[in-house]
Amino acid sequence: MDSQIDKAELIRRMAQHYNDLASLLAKVDDATLIQPGAVGSWSLKDMVAHLIAHEQRALRELEAAKRGEQIVEGGLSTDEFNARFVAESASRSGKVMLMAWGASFRQLLNSVGTLDESAFAPDSAVIQALGDSIDGAVANISYLHYAEHLPEVRAWLAKVSPAADAPQKAE
Length: 171
Fold this sequence. Notes:
Layout: H1 7-26, H2 30-33, H3 44-66, H4 78-88, H5 94-113, H6 125-130, H7 134-139, H8 143-160
Helix pairs in contact: 1-5, 1-8, 3-4, 3-5
């Protein structure tokens, strides 16, 4: 992880990788979004719930760090944490979850966007509270996380819904 990444580059990376995955998922019908087996045993909707859960956790940590506070969320293993949020989204449609993911992403992007450039300095109070660079705290739950799931999603969609991953024709 780049310890000296600036705000503009972090925002660029977040937006690029979010758009890569979100534009692919936007082409998928609701029946396919809820079909199990897309990411392990999860549906695409479940994967989105997982993304939201991790973004919201990072958002809470970043907002606390802006106040000079450090929060530690514990008690649940990663598998338990993921299972909890997937279960909580069970009654929601895939399209509703995509909208919720868009809102969650915008919250995180806005939180990063409101940081002063000085917050990215290695000795800043925000970095001290995070115990990590801002990129280090945000990347694994945002742009690297989206990029991690994208190949698996593409491969699964190519099997079950080939039109979803087809390149768009210019009109």
